[in-house]
């Protein structure tokens, strides 16, 4: 399926590219995703302007006559439904998922519960409260989930606060690190196999998946540094057998629809190597848009340029309960 790129640029109106924000992922949003999106929109003739919600009040969007927003924020107060809710109150259409879907997808634990309710595969897991950690409880986690085990803050992205625990002695440090970022801690079964990601565009039955990317990072460590600041990570497309590619795409679509997402998103998965079974890890509703980012790479493989992708996403901006359009504020 291809994008309808017959877009009236003038009808998009005055556009704010929201970038920066106050989350742990501020740097990537402010210096990489935001400027990339802004440059792409300007190149297409859009009346686009940078806007950092950490530096300016969102009420200024309405006061300055902005017609729509491209959300290039990452992490808390950017893709967790809070900014989306504020834009709903202001009546300014925005890109990506609405309030509820954004909030759910940002919470990896709630996401897992919904996926399991819909029969979608995700690694086994359990949660701990950061204010109720005891050595006796923490040390039992590997007995329940096996080793290695991943320990992560469920409301952060970009691998922030995540540890791969390979021995009992590492559990205490891992949970303490995660507790620095969250009041709840997610412990997740390790799936031995390659890491995959699959972007999704659109909404509901009209949504479609882009090509699957297999990620090969140095020493298998696709961390914050390897995501954004190195060129050593390999991204393989067209690498999976066609039936497996289709299976992963179908699972990404099901995950996207299960959470009620719209506009765009990116499902991250693990492929268990012993039987080629995919498992869902999380769904990002405001994926990175840097030169290293996965959605632009996948879109390019499908023949969609970065500029086309940004313009199309902007054209889909809307409010909850409103149909997509490019006629400005509705």
From TrEMBL:
<keyword id="KW-0963">Cytoplasm</keyword>
<keyword id="KW-0961">Cell wall biogenesis/degradation</keyword>
<feature type="domain" description="ATP-grasp">
    <location>
        <begin position="112"/>
        <end position="315"/>
    </location>
</feature>
<comment type="function">
    <text>Cell wall formation.</text>
</comment>
<protein>
    <recommendedName>
        <fullName>D-alanine--D-alanine ligase</fullName>
        <ecNumber>6.3.2.4</ecNumber>
    </recommendedName>
</protein>
<dbReference type="Pfam" id="PF07478">
    <property type="entry name" value="Dala_Dala_lig_C"/>
</dbReference>
<dbReference type="GO" id="GO:0008716">
    <property type="term" value="F:D-alanine-D-alanine ligase activity"/>
</dbReference>
<dbReference type="InterPro" id="IPR011095">
    <property type="entry name" value="Dala_Dala_lig_C"/>
</dbReference>
<comment type="pathway">
    <text>Cell wall biogenesis; peptidoglycan biosynthesis.</text>
</comment>
<keyword id="KW-0573">Peptidoglycan synthesis</keyword>
<dbReference type="InterPro" id="IPR005905">
    <property type="entry name" value="D_ala_D_ala"/>
</dbReference>
<comment type="similarity">
    <text>Belongs to the D-alanine--D-alanine ligase family.</text>
</comment>
<keyword id="KW-0547">Nucleotide-binding</keyword>
<keyword id="KW-0067">ATP-binding</keyword>
<dbReference type="InterPro" id="IPR016185">
    <property type="entry name" value="PreATP-grasp_dom_sf"/>
</dbReference>
<dbReference type="Pfam" id="PF01820">
    <property type="entry name" value="Dala_Dala_lig_N"/>
</dbReference>
<dbReference type="InterPro" id="IPR013815">
    <property type="entry name" value="ATP_grasp_subdomain_1"/>
</dbReference>
<dbReference type="InterPro" id="IPR000291">
    <property type="entry name" value="D-Ala_lig_Van_CS"/>
</dbReference>
<dbReference type="InterPro" id="IPR011761">
    <property type="entry name" value="ATP-grasp"/>
</dbReference>
<dbReference type="InterPro" id="IPR011127">
    <property type="entry name" value="Dala_Dala_lig_N"/>
</dbReference>
<keyword id="KW-0133">Cell shape</keyword>
<keyword id="KW-0436">Ligase</keyword>
